Structures are given as C-alpha cells and as structure tokens.
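Input/output pair, single chain:
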Amino acid sequence: MRSFIPLVTNRSLFFIAAALWAFAGVMLIVRGVSGIVEFPAHLFIKLSVALTAGAVFYLLLFKKISSKYVKRITGFQNMRVPFYSFFSLRGYIMMTLMISLGIAVRKTGIVPFEYLAVFYITMGIPLLVSAFKFLHSGIFFDKSE
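Output:
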C-alpha cells in the first residue's frame, strides 16, 4: 500500500502546504466578503473588525503554528516523504475539528450569516498570510541546512 503514496521533497511539501492553506484562506475570505456584501450595514466596522482580528489571530496564533510546520518540514533532512507529511497527526485532527465546527455552526444557524461572514474573513486572513510564509519557505529552502 505504501508504494501507492506519492513521496515528495521538502520543497514540494512547502508548496503543497502553501496551496492548501491558501485555498482555505481564499475560500473563507470569498465566502466572508459575499456575506458582508449581502448584509452591507456597518460595512466599514465589519471590515475593520475582520482585518484587525485577522492580523491579531495571525500574530498570536497562526505565526507560531506555521513556524512550527516550517520547522517540521525543514527537519525531514532531504528525505522523500509522503505528500501529506506537512502536518502532524495532531494537526490533521485539529484541522478536521475546526472544519467540522465551522460547518456545524453554519448549518445550524446558531450564528447569523451576517456575523459569520466577519468571522470567515477573520480566519481567512491568517490562513492566507501563513500560506505566503510556506511559499516563501519553499522558494528559499536550502537543502544544505
């Protein structure tokens, strides 16, 4: 079974991680912007809150998380590893829980979409900034380190 799993280099892992995080970030930002456009009342306040909270989330949480995964990928010592190795098992569990919670909140209607849209942008920003960090790390990855 292992022979069917594609193996990739460290540099490729950075690009795969960047693509995944960028996809998630852009998807959330687009969904959030569509919600803000649908409910334009207090547009400036909503955008200000989303942008500020997104920056804070990145600086306090996502910067540390993405740095941890950059260190993880760099630590593979030029081995070819499975394409999904940019996350640890714990990372995949956390991602699954966060996605599931997001879907549950949206489907149950506990939080009105007008406010959920602000949260989508808030979460999309640190994901997208982290994706650029992975992209930068992949571009400037030095195999000799």
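The mean pLDDT is 92. The helical segments are 10-38, 43-74, 89-108, 113-139.
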